[in-house]
Write a structure and sequence with these properties.
- The protein folds into 2 domains: 101 residues, Ribosomal protein L1/L10, rRNA-binding domain (Ribulose 1,5 Bisphosphate Carboxylase/Oxygenase, 2-Layer Sandwich); 65 residues, Rossmann fold, CATH 3.40.50.790.
- It is built from 6 helices and 8 strands.
- The longest helix has 15 residues.
- It is elongated.
Length: 176
């Protein structure tokens, strides 16, 4: 078990890839069913493709073309989206009120997701969260801030232990 600054330093020394490795956080929680969203101060380093549902998007989805990571819709668009629910639902792309993707002001939601907001949810049968918190190129300070905001969003009382790793490194257990 390492304190966070020491774990990040160790992670930097273990970096083997010739590419900008992704930093992952694996959190064991007290119970399954923990979910929510958090805006990371420095984003994840990955460009999130957010689309606002319209007739053109629905036509593309019907053809099998999905070029977005998150779909945002207005309430009046939902009956039209029902046609493609069988395609979007299993992929977790169907807008729903729980994660705030059904809204009267889709522009605001698009800004949030493009600005680094991520949704998190434990595995269905296990109390585990798997999250991307940035890239190795961010440096220790930015990664530390992202990790702290993630831990605060999950709430320390819900956390059993945390493992930090990059794409090619072994896991490093960190102190909560």
């Amino acid at each position: 078990m390492y304190p966070l600054p020491e774990a990040l330093e160790l992670l930097g020394k273990m970096q083997r890839g010739k590419f900008d490795e992704t930093v992952e956080l694996h959190i064991n929680t007290v119970t399954a069913g923990i979910s929510g969203n958090v805006t990371l101060p420095h984003g994840t380093g990955k460009k999130t493709r957010v689309a606002v549902a319209d007739d053109k998007i629905i036509a593309e989805v019907e053809k099998g073309v999905i070029n977005f990571d998150i779909l945002v819709a207005t309430p009046d668009m939902m009956p039209k989206l029902a046609k493609v629910a069988k395609v979007l639902g299993p992929r977790g792309l169907m807008p729903n009120p729980k994660n705030g993707t059904i809204t009267a002001k889709p522009e605001e939601v698009v800004k949030k997701y493009e600005g680094g907001q991520i949704n998190f949810k434990t595995e269905t049968k296990n109390p585990l969260l798997h999250l991307t918190v940035g890239k190795m190129s961010f440096g220790s300070e930015k990664l530390s801030e992202n990790i702290e905001s993630m831990v605060n969003a999950v709430k320390k009382g819900n956390i059993v232990n945390i493992t930090l790793k990059s794409t090619m490194s072994p896991g490093i257990k960190i102190r909560v």
